[in-house]
Amino acid sequence: YAMVSELRGAAERDEFLLNFQPIIGMASGRIEAMEVLLRWQHPQRGLVPPMQFIPLAETSGLIVPIGEWVIRAACAQIRAWRAAGLQVPPLAINLSAIQVHHKTLVERIAAILREMEVGAGALEFEITEGSLMNKTDEVVSTLRRLCGLGVRLAIDDFGTGYSSLSYLKRLPVDTLKIDRSFVMDIRSDAEDAAIVGAVISMARSLKLKVIAEGVETPYQLEFLRALGCDQYQGFLASKPLSAIDAARRLTQRV
Ligand code: G
Ligand code: G
Ligand code: MN
Ligand code: NA
To answer: What is the pTM of this model?
Structure first.
C-alpha cells in the first residue's frame, strides 16, 4: 500500500504539523488547555485527514515513532511559545491503543520530558476508552507509571467503550472527555441527554474533571454548564487552529 511507505518517511520530510484545539473552562471562559491534533501535509495528496492515516499508522506500527514525533513537536512548540512570552496552557496529546500497549512508552515519554525540559505539568495524555479494554493489569501499571512522571491523564471518547466503574476507580485518571456523539443530539434526544447527565454526575462523585467534546451550539453549552461540566471543546469556541492562530488566541487570552 503506497500510503504506508509514504507515511514512513513523512516525519523526516517535515510533512507533519500540529493543530491545536482550545479547551475552554466553563467558569473562566478562558482557554485552560489545548488538544494537539496531528496533520499530514502530503506533497501530492494535499492535507490527508487523520481518519485516513492514523488507522494506517496503527496497523503498520508506525504510530509508535509518529506518536513520539508528536510528543517532541508539542514540547518544542511549548518552548517556542514560552520563549515568545506566551502563557501556555497544558497541551493534551492523543495516544493510540498501540502506544499504550507498547513496552517502552513510559520510558520514551520520560526521556522526551528530560530532553525538552518543559516540565511534566505542560502535558496531558488522552487515552481512548477502547484502549483500556484488554490486558487491563498491564494498562493499569502503564498508566500508574505515566502518572508518576507528573503528566495528567484523560479518558477520551468516554461512553463509547465499556469501562466498568470499578475499573475506572483503579485508574490514575484525572479527566473524562465525553464523546462528541453523545453531545451532538442532547437537544433532540432525551436518551443522549440522560447519558451525558449520568456521566457528569458519575465523574463528579469520582472527583474527576469532565470535558464535553464537539460543542457546536449555545444550547449544548448551557445544558452542559447547568449539569456541572467543567470544560468544553468544539466548533462553538474554536475549530482546531494552526500554531500561528493558536498563538494569536493565547495572546488575546479569550
Ligand atoms: O481533527 P480530527 O480530524 O483531528 O482528528 C481525527 C481523529 O484523529 C481523532 O480521533 C483524533 O483523536 C485522532 N488524532 C489526531 N491527532 C492524533 C495523534 O497525534 N495521535 C493519535 N493517536 N491520534 C490522533
Ligand atoms: O477523537 P478525538 O476526540 O481526539 O477527535 C477530535 C476530533 O473532533 C477532531 O477531528 C476535531 O477536528 C473534531 N472536532 C472538534 N470539535 C468538533 C465539533 O465541534 N464538531 C465536530 N463535528 N467535530 C469536532
Ligand atoms: Mn482526543
Ligand atoms: Na473524542
So the answer is: 0.96
